[in-house]
Amino acid sequence: MQVLTENEEPPGAADLRAQQVVLWSAPVVALVLLVLFACFPGFFPPMSPTMSAARVGAFYRDHTAMIRFSMVGFNLCGILIVPFFVLIMAQMQRMRGQSHVYAFSYLSAVVAGATLFALSDVFFAAAAFRPDRGDDLIQLLDDLAWIMFVAPIGMLVAQFALLAMAIYADDRRAPVFPRWVAHYSVLTAVAMAPSALAAVVHDGPLAWNGAVSFWLRNGAFALFVVVMFFVVRTALRRQAEQQGAGEGVVP
Predict the structure, then answer these.
(1) What phi and psi, each to the nearest 5 degrees, are found at residue 41?
(2) Residue 44 CA to chain centroid, in angstroms?
(3) Extended strands (E) in the chain
(4) Is residue 69 within 8 Å of 228, Cβ to Cβ?
(5) Inter-axis angle of helices 99-129 and 64-77, nearest 10
(6) C-alpha to C-alpha distance for 28 and 30, rounded to whole angstroms
(7) At residue 112, what are phi and psi to the nearest 5 degrees?
(8) CB neighbours of 76 closer than 8 A, spacing ≥ 6?
């Protein structure tokens, strides 16, 4: 046993502070992304896959400035939500069982999802880059943007499933995350999975502008982030208490 001197910190204190910074930056990032989401005129209401090429071209010509603003903002700020999911990964690494494997697999799913989101921004921006080009080309870029934004759901389903498996494997008496979070994560994955069909469906609830593929998908994801903010905050408080109980001693 090694006793800490007056100027030394208990083990893990710096890491805990970094996690707290990431946690409390998440609401700011979420607010910025919500504003950018509201600024994109194609989301309220979401553009329909059945729109003609002429209407799609006219939309990009009529709203060029706001489309460019929102896409530049997403490209700058969208990636800033990733540290919050890395924070969840850090808590997964504290779990027992095979959760280290789950944690790194979870991180891979997060990175894949962020990459696809960035690509959808690029396609939206490309459609608005030359609004004077032919309507068919603008519609093609718009199709790519929407399909990339809504349909690639596998990495998100994997993300929720991996979190659930890590929680189920954490069999300690006081687990890092409560068991209900695993159930909720599975339900979120189930709710979002049908949006994969947005790549082949042109109308109805499963189309990219539909109640399931757009509103349920994005609403379930946003709600999950809000819920996990409070879950992670509680886990960090418990971690701080555990570290404080052993403060002053290094094993």
Answers:
(1) -65, -15
(2) 21
(3) 2-3, 249-250
(4) no
(5) 160
(6) 5
(7) -65, -45
(8) none
